[in-house]
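FW: tagging you since you asked about this chain on Friday. Here's the raw sequence from the shared folder, copied in full. Didn't touch anything.
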Amino acid sequence: MSTPWRSRATSRPRTTEAVLLVALFAVAVSGCLLSSSVMPGPPPLWPAVTLSALTCAVLPKRRTHPLPVLAVTALGMVALSSLGHLVTAMNMGPLMVAQYSVSLRAERRTAWYSALAVTALMVASGLFHGELRDQWIIGLVNPAAWVPLSAALGGYVRVRREYAAARTEHIAREREEEARHRVVQERMRIARELHDVVAHHLALANAQAGTAAHLARADPEKAYEILDKLSGTTAAALRELKATVGLLRQDTDTDDGLAPAPGLAQLPGLVAACATAGLDVTVTEEGRARPLAPGLDLTAYRIVQEALTNVTKHAATRTARVRLAHTPHFLTLTITNDTAGPVPRPGPGTGPGPASGHGFGLLGMRERALAAGGTFRAGPRPEGGFEVACTLPLHGHDEGTAP
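HL: got it, structure written out here
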């Protein structure tokens, strides 16, 4: 059935049902007329027409009472055969529709048991025609064969519908799992952003406050200058926190969600902020710098920011070096401090080289690097100090998405 006709049939079920019943009755009456013309006797016509009308009249109940409808149509065919009419596929139309409905709606075992019972009944009905004993294919096999075919068709349609329903449920479950996975990823991304913002700015603010307190008596003007910069640090922290928390209030995703996010272009401001906290940072670049996608640019900046924050909080040295190595396919970031001091406790790592620690800072840096398709390594240096190194690929991943 074509799609337009199928949609019309679905939208007008009563009209479709009436057309089906009229067509079945017309075919059944045609079968009775054919039987009256070929069978000796001839058999009475009007009782056969009445039986055909009765078997068609009970078909609307086949959806709610499939087995009783099948019994009525089967007994109608037996009565028709007892009148001397030849049972053919034409006047068996109501019976085949009833058997199809049973196979479609009843339990499988019940459906096949009913099909076997009706088949045996049709074979028995052929015994009423003694003149067809020599033509057993017409009198016995023909009426009996249509019942299993109807049952098989109903069973096939039932299996197809169950498969379609199971597939639809599976697809819905997959979509739900995918949505849940995306929510978890988004929460992790926002958690990393919040950690980086809070850890960096609070570490700088704490270092600036400590430096100002230390210089309050020896150099008050320098202390006041640091306190002025402290207000800028806290204001920047509030701005970034507001932008990050604002992501939680968005109803829909936007393609430009990373547009205002920081990148390596803000590295000089980061170095200046570290200088006010007493950390001397040297930045060197190798190779020709290339424009980075927003997601990759944010990843690189956050890794440098978190590494410098760890130096500010944990290292005994007041100096650090940041090295940016640009190649046609990779960006390598190396952040080191030379003097050995307290470093994050090492733990199981995921990449080559020294193992990374258990802190959320190293964990967040490693997750960002791996999410971008790169590698990450962090650990003490043999000559003293601590080193964070990661390599980020410039191609071969979705650079336009957030890490």
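FW: Strands lie at 280-286, 319-326, 330-337, 375-380, 386-393.
HL: agreed, and The chain has two domains: 3-174, 263-403.
FW: great, closing this out.
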